[in-house]
Design brief:
The chain is mostly beta strands. The protein is built from one helix and 17 strands.
Length: 237
């Protein structure tokens, strides 16, 4: 029953562009060289509690977590399952911007649609901005927040959206604030989605799009692909 409910939510998303269940990478946005960084992965809607791993849609729990270092080395990180989340960790060896990423296409189709879940997190270590580049996230769809900036309330916040490595217009971007306020915006011709945060705290960002495509997925024909990408962004007063 839980899988059916999740699938219905995903189908509604393709019509109304509202939030759906997604993977989220939770970690501190800053770190220190030589100091362990803890990471948590959950599956939920932005305003809901994390779902128990046993109830995750299809085989989404079989994701892989990757770390891209400031010199663009890609390392697969081990994950440990809990009741409603996975944990991981890494220790940055030097200053720079580190990118965590997940890309998982669910094995089970929703009708004739592939559902692809993407998530990322950006960790700035020290003062170096090496690696502070949207292209360091190799997912087919991604949201990027410039690590050189401090995002403040009542000031415009720009996010870069990428689809197949290119800034993309008219991606649907859902924004969930710490207060529970939600807003939907679209990326412009430069792939930039803008909003003005009103409250301090962590904002949950989810970009999504659907594409008509045909092929075979684990022995079953598909006619479209739905992709989403998530990112957490901290806003201060």
């Amino acid at each position: 029953m839980k899988s059916i409910i999740t699938l219905v939510a995903l189908l509604l998303l393709s019509v109304s562009n509202l939030f759906a269940h997604a993977l989220w990478i939770q970690t501190g946005t800053t770190g220190k060289a030589g100091q362990k960084q803890t990471v948590k992965i959950v599956y939920s809607e932005p305003d809901d509690k994390p779902e128990k791993i046993a109830d995750w849609y299809s085989d989404v729990k079989e994701f892989e977590l990757w770390l891209t270092t400031p010199d663009k080395q890609k390392v697969k990180l081990a994950t440990v399952a809990g009741e409603d989340h996975f944990t991981s960790e890494f220790t940055p060896e030097k200053d720079g911007v580190y990118t965590l990423s997940i890309s998982k296409a669910a094995k089970e189709l929703g009708g004739s649609t592939i559902y692809q879940f993407n998530a990322s997190a950006i960790v700035k270590v020290g003062k170096s901005l090496a690696g502070n580049d949207a292209s360091f996230n190799g997912n087919e769809i991604a949201v990027f927040a410039d690590a050189s900036k401090t995002y403040k309330v009542n000031q415009p916040l720009n996010l870069t959206t990428l689809l197949k490595d290119k800034p993309t217009e008219k991606l649907h971007v859902g924004i969930s604030s710490p207060s529970g306020w939600n807003k939907n915006v679209s990326s412009n011709a430069s792939g930039v989605a803008e909003f003005t945060p009103i409250w301090a705290g962590t904002y949950k960002i989810e970009a999504s799009t659907s594409e008509k495509a045909e092929g075979d997925h684990f022995g079953k024909p598909y006619k479209s692909i739905w992709r989403c990408a998530t990112l957490l962004v901290d806003v201060v007063k």
